[in-house]
Amino acid sequence: MQNFNMSRSQSFYAIGLSYKKADADMRGRFSLDEASTLALLEQAKTNGVESLVATSTCNRTELYGFAQHPFQLIQLLCENTEGTVEEFQEVAYIYKNKEAITHMFRVGSGLDSQILGDFEIISQLKSSARLSKKHGLLNPFSERLINAVIQASKRIKNETDISTGATSVSFASVQYIFDNVENVSEKNILLFGTGKIGRNTCENLVKHTENKHITLINRTKDKAEKIAGKFNLVVKDYSNLQEELTQADILIVATGAQRPTIDKQIIQSKKPLLILDLSIPKNVDENVKELPQITLIHLDQLSQITDQTLEARKAHIPSAEAIIEEVKSDFNSWLETRKFAPTIKALKLKLNEFALAELDTQRKKLVDFNESQAELISKNIIQKITNHFAHHLKDEGVSTDESLELIKKVFQLEQHSTNA
Predict the structure, then answer these.
(1) Ranges for the Quinate/shikimate 5-dehydrogenase/glutamyl-tRNA reductase domain (predicted)?
(2) 129 Cβ neighbours under 8 A, 6+ residues apart
(3) What residue numbers bound the domain in which 365 lies?
(4) What is the CATH number of the domain that holds 244?
(5) 192-251: per-residue pLDDT in tens?
(6) Residue 165, annotated ligand binder?
(7) Maximum mean pLDDT: which of 41-55, 247-261, 309-323
(8) What is d(CA 178, CA 175) in angstroms, rounded to the nearest whole number?
(9) CA neighbours closer than 13 Å in the CB half-sphere of residue 397
(10) 119 closest CA partner among 106, 132, 128, 131
(11) Residues 70, 94: contact at Cβ < 8 Å?
């Protein structure tokens, strides 16, 4: 991908880190909450970045954007998180142009998820793109690409069975409880944190456990009450957290805090307590393991759980990849068209200049000059010529770059197509 006339910058990059090389602690250092995401976008605008999408989930943190060099994006990420450039280099990946486009397709389609077929990432990509657009950081290339990825994700979900079975951390957490806790329906379950993972976990708990002893706590109580109302659950104040912990058999932590919200000091009960930490960064301090009655499971362990449908889901990867290639091909066709659109526009302007000059000459020469008929003929001829050039440039058997340069040279279009 040379200059696609999408951006003043030369290259489109995807930079980031994921569960593949970065453990939960490292992902936590590079995680972006709402405030740091906004700060990053504002800094990007100040630095002259014209298009940037930032995503941060429990499994990955990524930036998709245009830059002269990927370090511009790496620096943005490191300056708005706790991670350093040195740490980033140890665990990160950098994709450029075509590879960056392919990476976004695989991520958005659940093929790069920690649990194969997990489609929760696509809603994150959507909301991230909306936020970028709101801040004037989504150019036509990025918006079209995001929409293409959404289309591919939708088709894969509808046309394949790759999402059959446990396909998310929230479902895997409920599966773990089923596999390791007897009489689940009789246990007291405390859900601390009602963000997206918390909401999904809550829904899975209600749907699959038939448990009537689920209590919700959130720092912002009204958010918890909205979910509780939907499922007819109990909500307690954040100030009651320690008291509720003494009653709990299972604690699920899904808060969005940047520091641990649960540690050994807050746990007073001596009875067995299973803690599932679904947060990035980790929201349960490792020191709880010093208490003999505590079993602590983090989401990375949950993600390693395989169910009997995993192998069946793997069989659908080729179908999913075929859909990606089809949608990506349409996107690339649009991209090629955008590549030569400024030159065709400039050519049309040049031909119009020729026509106007000739019409003016004929107008002076001919007494009965038919103005409207002459303009119509000129317009039709110009359209036919530009259509022929456009069809030529779309031909896969020709070098688009060489053809563009020749057209610019023959018709002296440099001044028209620059910065188009």
Answers:
(1) 180-305
(2) 53, 138, 142, 143, 146
(3) 340-417
(4) 3.40.50.720
(5) 988 778 888 888 888 888 777 889 999 888 888 888 887 778 889 999 999 999 999 999
(6) no
(7) 41-55
(8) 5
(9) 2
(10) 106
(11) yes
Cα(17)–Cα(299) distance, integer angstroms: 17
Alpha carbons 117 and 310: distance in angstroms, whole number: 9
The reply, when asked if residue 201 is annotated as ligand binding, is no
State yes or no: 120 annotated in a binding site: yes
Known catalytic membership, residue 202: no
Tell me: the pLDDT tens digits for 315-346?
A: 899 999 999 999 999 998 888 777 777 887 88
What's the one-letter identity of residue 20? K
Report the SS3 class of residue 94: strand
Q: Hey, which bits of 281-388 come out as E strands?
A: 294-298
Q: Same domain, yes or no, for 83 and 102?
A: yes
Catalytic residue among 58, 235, 252, 324: 58
- What angle, 0 to 180 degrees and rounded to 10, lies between the N-to-C axes of helices 120-134 and 196-209? 150
Torsional class of 181: left (φ above 0), alpha (ψ -120 to 50), beta (otherwise) = beta
Task: Report the amino acid identity of residue 318.
Answer: P
* Domain identity same for 136 and 180: no
The verdict on whether residue 59 carries a ligand-binding annotation is: yes
State residue 58 phi and psi, 5-degree precision. Answer: -65, -20
Q: Mark whether 239 and 276 lie in a shared domain.
A: yes
CA distance 312 to 308: 8
Residue 4 lies in a domain: no
Q: 46 - beta bridge partners?
A: none
- 155 with 55, same domain: the answer is yes
Q: Annotation-wise, does 124 bind a ligand?
A: yes
User: Whole-angstrom Cα distance, residue 67 to residue 9?
Assistant: 5
Considering the domain architecture, whether residues 182 and 288 belong to the same structural domain is answered as: yes
Is residue 178 located within the same domain as residue 132? Answer: no
